[in-house]
Design goal:
The protein is built from 14 helices and 16 strands. With about 475 residues, the protein is α+β, with helices and mostly antiparallel strands. The protein has two domains: about 100 residues, Nucleic acid-binding proteins (OB fold (Dihydrolipoamide Acetyltransferase, E2P)); about 300 residues, BirA Bifunctional Protein, domain 2. A hairpin with a 3-residue loop joins β14 and β15. α4 crosses α6 and α4 crosses α14. The structure holds adenosine-5'-triphosphate (ATP) and manganese (II) ion. Adenosine-5'-triphosphate (ATP) binds next to β11, β15, β16 and α14.
Length: about 475
Amino acid sequence: MKHTKVKDLLSSTKTLNEVNAKGWVRTFRNNQFIALNDGSTINNIQCVVDFENTPEETLKRITTGAAVSVYGELVESKGAGQKYEIQVSRLEILGDSDAEKFPMQPKKHSLEFLRENAHLRVRTNAFGAIMRVRSVLAHAVHNYFQEKGFVYVNTPIITGSDAEGAGEMFKVTALPFDGTPRTEEGKVNYKEDFFGKETNLTVSGQLEAETYAMALGQVYTFGPTFRAENSNTSRHLAEFWMIEPEVAFNDLNDNMDLAEDFIQYVIKYTMDKCGDDLKFLEGRLVEEEKSKPQAERSEMTLLEKLNFVLENNFKRVSYTEAIDILRDCTPNKKKKFNYIINEWGADLQSEHERYLVEKHFKCPVILFDYPANIKAFYMRLNEDGKTVRAMDILFPGIGEIVGGSQREERYDVLVEKMKVLGIDEEELWWYLDTRRFGSAVHSGFGLGFERLVLFVTGMTNIRDVIPFPRTPQNAEF
Ligand code: ATP
Ligand code: MN
């Protein structure tokens, strides 16, 4: 007999004579009631054990964390809170759990404690919900692009170009640390390395994706990305997942439209599929907010925030307008910011981004047309000669969630820019080829998948929305 998922049992439309459920014991009350969870839903199924006819030995082994298989009848529940329960006729212990040592006791644990037990935290309601939401969001990403005819491209994880400039890179090498081969000048001789050149883990698939967009039209990547960021923030991981669409013939406005439509689609999709999980996470957030001072509490619940994003256009504001707002705002004048905004040209810190989104506009914001010298070399120069067609999308509670741009499609302008910045033309010969053979206007953006999961789940630390986070000094599991 094949076992049935708890989710299917709970949504049954009728009682059933013989069912089998397998899962892990969350709690066992009064030597009689098992709350069984198998990960298919946040909801447990209640299994009523016939304790008079079950050997004492077996009853003792029904402990929190144990894996069990129960057989019995699916009947209407007499208790409150569930429609159906299983009247158990036979119970098998599949895997014992030492209840005293099992770290996931049925009580509230701190997120720090749960991070140290990342292999078991997924057995809690919150992490089960987060990981199911994450999975559905990933599906939504593919659905959106596939429905629109985008081609999914897998750009390399080991990259031979170190000119991407998006962040600090992790080196990939097969050279020995002792007796590393050296050149005559005493530098590491990468010619003797595995690839015969210096290689790194990718910080972005964009440059490669651009070459594909210039043949397939609309492409997207969705894969692991690595940055040796030595900043221990709640928004940065050393290993994260990035989604990077790249579209031929799209200008910056098309790019903004795409990003906005995409984000709204994936949120809507997930709200439709993950109702129970989001409801639970909303409740979790309400509890968490209670421990904050009134002034810091959110005015909206999680679902209200998500609906707000669906129902409101993102506010589009130029960098120049944003600087004017920031220069004149109270926290700037009262020197409450760590970085005071004085002049046009300043790079925006997350405190500024969050002020704009959370205090000033009170909605998602797209900032565009940034100063050229604080943005990457490949962004298209505007007619003013000092700004580029960049766009960042800023979200409440998160700050930057998307970074993108219209790309510089003019060969001469691009080469000139690379010269000024000291970027090796020979290294990027293949990238420059796209501007030599049928160049065209094109645009794209990068969205950090975990930052999206943060927003949708209402979690506040990025370490809690990826199964096994990698951060400075931490690569356990
Ligand atoms: P930030 O200023 O927040 O470090 P960035 O400017 O370095 O971001 P981009 O290089 O534009 O970001 O990358 C595109 C997107 O990837 C960002 O908008 C963000 O959502 C995500 N991202 C960037 N770095 C990280 C990281 N270390 N961990 C998780 N997500 C990241
Ligand atoms: Mn960064």
